[in-house]
Amino acid sequence: MPKLAYLGPEGTFCEAALRILAPDAERLPCANVSAALDAARGGEADGAVVPLENSVEGAITVTLDELAWGEPLLISAELLLPVEFSLLVRPGIGLPQIKRVYTHPAAITQCRNYLARELPDAVVVAAPSTAAAALEVSMPGSPYDAAIGPAIAGEHYGLFELAARMGDRDDTVTRFVRVSRPGPLPEPTGADRTSLVAFLRDDHPGALLEMLSEFAVRGVNLTRIESRPTGDGIGRYFFHFDAEGHVGDARVGEALSGLRRLSDDVRFLGSYPRADRVSPQLKSGVADPDFAEAAGWLARIRTGQA
Amino acid sequence: MPKLAYLGPEGTFCEAALRILAPDAERLPCANVSAALDAARGGEADGAVVPLENSVEGAITVTLDELAWGEPLLISAELLLPVEFSLLVRPGIGLPQIKRVYTHPAAITQCRNYLARELPDAVVVAAPSTAAAALEVSMPGSPYDAAIGPAIAGEHYGLFELAARMGDRDDTVTRFVRVSRPGPLPEPTGADRTSLVAFLRDDHPGALLEMLSEFAVRGVNLTRIESRPTGDGIGRYFFHFDAEGHVGDARVGEALSGLRRLSDDVRFLGSYPRADRVSPQLKSGVADPDFAEAAGWLARIRTGQA
Amino acid sequence: MPKLAYLGPEGTFCEAALRILAPDAERLPCANVSAALDAARGGEADGAVVPLENSVEGAITVTLDELAWGEPLLISAELLLPVEFSLLVRPGIGLPQIKRVYTHPAAITQCRNYLARELPDAVVVAAPSTAAAALEVSMPGSPYDAAIGPAIAGEHYGLFELAARMGDRDDTVTRFVRVSRPGPLPEPTGADRTSLVAFLRDDHPGALLEMLSEFAVRGVNLTRIESRPTGDGIGRYFFHFDAEGHVGDARVGEALSGLRRLSDDVRFLGSYPRADRVSPQLKSGVADPDFAEAAGWLARIRTGQA
Amino acid sequence: MPKLAYLGPEGTFCEAALRILAPDAERLPCANVSAALDAARGGEADGAVVPLENSVEGAITVTLDELAWGEPLLISAELLLPVEFSLLVRPGIGLPQIKRVYTHPAAITQCRNYLARELPDAVVVAAPSTAAAALEVSMPGSPYDAAIGPAIAGEHYGLFELAARMGDRDDTVTRFVRVSRPGPLPEPTGADRTSLVAFLRDDHPGALLEMLSEFAVRGVNLTRIESRPTGDGIGRYFFHFDAEGHVGDARVGEALSGLRRLSDDVRFLGSYPRADRVSPQLKSGVADPDFAEAAGWLARIRTGQA
């Protein structure tokens, strides 16, 4: 039974993600992303589950920077988790009894319409996290009647889910990844993703265009590009890429080798099944058999065969 | 005398930036970036000064998203401000008297070495902002003996600067921009920058490569590229670009027009003098006279002249 | 009634092309392509019809070089003429009477199967041209019984067409163009072609790729590319291009301007209706209204409008 | 002692090229390029020397088409031979005695200035080839007093070289290649050239741009590009390429493999030392050690090593 660190405390969306990605794992809540990744690096845990990006907020930059700069870790799985808020109450409490609501400010913002419609007179108070809000509300004698948070927080703290999916935008999604210390990669499934980080050799105009060309020429589509500062001053960046395919695919391997030759440093962050199971639309001539045929041909012409 | 909103409270790095960008302006501190930009939009202020990116933390995403989605504003100036921390005390206090230090956690992190070396026995307590820490320390009877913050916070709250540039990385820089409602652009200076936002028409593979090609073909270098989520789900992004040159330059104008034709939407965010005064290295054939010569030639051949 | 020079003598495929392109024109046969073009340049004729390329033999290099280097001429029309051979005899002669055949060696090669099948015992003698062969055969007392040549040669010299389309490959096609001194261009028809010649500014690696990119970025497809030596030594070339569209189209005009800025010299050779009437498949954003919309937008943002 | 076919008769520039490329070879003159190549294919000769291009006339298309379509042959060497004309006379004849000159029309054109200056009153008569002219002049009782042709023709036919380098443009150069049946390639020298032919899979817009990108991305420069008709109608072409480097170089091998995957057919025409001994200027990251390092890295990350 593996032990996985995650962004705690108990009751977070991150825990919900972990429980889907690894239902049987032992869970180790950590105070922040860096601590969770350090637990995986140091062996305190066998791996970690952390958020990578959110469909509204964008990249979780602490995760990007940790994966780029810290001791190497590899992504082995990903999950797209809808960010759905529930109204959590002590058993026996109904809507009319709710006078004071406790939750994180982000949840207040995202549930504004529900609150205005269903609880127009309730006082809403800011909590440090949705999990902390649920814990507080679960205490006998709490001054708060309800918390807003993930359903999983209700489960943890013995609260009743009075309303579900109460956010204004229930299509918001957070992408979580499972990482572990370097080791054998997940097998290719035909619908995989490869993550990596590349540092430009010299930051000349057109350098990003050159990097993108390494992928494009081999027919490898990119699904995400993020620039991050190198720390060496405004205008100096490195890049996170997510590419379609598995590093074991010939086209992906050759593209990564091309990027490696072009870059000061490339850090491979893993190949793993896509959460959305979408297989890439390959242009002509870039499937593995095409590479194998061309390699055979090259070997022949190099020995002077017709 | 213009009135400029900024990210307050008094004593922030943002105020320091504003005072350099517009020494004579009346200053309107605001609670957050959105409030400062709304003050500029609504006419409460004539403009605003806000942070855009930091050389270590990266993009200030709230600023990027506000400029992309809110009522249009144009950048008219930029400033690169070193993030330098000072040790601020009530007059009469020296190092030996400092038992308790109050500051924002980011400053604690960045001044770790100084604190370990010079104040190994001091207790360091987290404050909501460096400006708030300075205000607190300035109060008679404060339990804190020193604040860490920008020098300007000391000026504001009557504190003495006992040490300057005490951060571990005093090369950290924040880029601030001055924005205002749409209106006449700053004149080209020969060392300008143009900012814009582009939304892909349809998010096909290679779309970013196509956008970069519009710049590259006209010899326009990009100095910054940021992807941001459109909010329509993981994997859907729009892009912020900073390009060398002024929209009045022929090559920049043609590149922007090309981007416009290629994109669902392009929002122009302004052309303004570069803070670093660096003029672009132009490749052959892309200066304004080259465009003028080619336009004259095109007009002639269209009428059938040799 | 215009007077057009052409590659003579009377009875050539070139005359056949001229009679289709300009049925009412007065015809001036010339000894070679250079002479025909010089007649157009010097005013002896109002224009000329010359071959540009053949679907089997390739470019007619003398035409390419004359158009690139000589006094400027503009192409105003093109024609694709099938190269079809006929068996031409004096009236009264039938297959059994044919003992000796006279024609140009190229025609012997291309009619090999017909000759082996229908005239296995005939002696075939090489003539300087198919037109000369027809003239010879038309003479009373000629030692030859039949000529092989274009049907038009039979008409000219009073011969009877005993067999038509006797070549082994009757899908061979020659492309002829009508040229004249610079003057107003043919109106755009929506299915046009533009011809031009470009000399590289400096012959650096990737120069051709850059030139092709000028077209590709504006969505202008090329239908023909020919390299020709500049005469300055092996490895120095200039390029002939045929592009889809009319120079009056915004995308074509901008691409040509881009090429002009990139090149040491660009010579425009004309925009004219395509013989095959094929309209280009335009990618999104490159039609004239797209350019007009983008130009309007650019004008607005340059004055600081939102 | 190898036996090499060449474009005869004796005394041609092609023989001169052969004698430099293979001084000890037995020589087999052939009536035309096709015959010389067929002699090499069929085993009548061990190889052939034929012209490939001329710095003024351009490609020798019969050679290009024979190498593309016929039984495969590989280029193993190249030579750049200046096209220099000599005035060849029977012993004892001086300039004043020359009344009638015999030579090929191309030589008449290229020696126009010399003839006007030195032999203004001589009659110049057209011969079928410069070698035939030399043979004729060598005959006792010939009506001609002098031939114009390559020095080698004088040697062959016992003529005296009265003047050398008499052409108006003595910088004209013809590139000859030595070809043979497929077999081991010449070793890489660091200054090599690779020739090949590529047929587009489907003739879509941008296909040539894609092919050029396969070379450009790997930093392989092209020194020659020729389009030739496929024979399937106007507008259908295939391409001859000369690239810098040897197929044994990693970057060239990978570029050719990429082209192979992209194309309907690629025919390798050989890797051989450049006549001009120019080594390529490699961009960063494309030398063999760069490829080897990247391949090692790829192997490591594929097994999940950091």
UniProtKB/TrEMBL annotation, chains A, B, C, D:
Keyword Amino-acid biosynthesis attached: yes
UniProt cross-references to SUPFAM superfamilies, sorted A to Z: ACT-like, Periplasmic binding protein-like II
Chemical reaction(s) catalysed: prephenate + H(+) = 3-phenylpyruvate + CO2 + H2O
Pfam families linked: ACT, PDT
Group of enzyme by EC: lyase
Domain Prephenate dehydratase: 3-181
Keywords associated with the record: Amino-acid biosynthesis, Aromatic amino acid biosynthesis, Lyase, Phenylalanine biosynthesis
Highest taxon above the source species: Bacteria
Any GO MF annotation of the entry: prephenate dehydratase activity
Protein name as annotated: Prephenate dehydratase
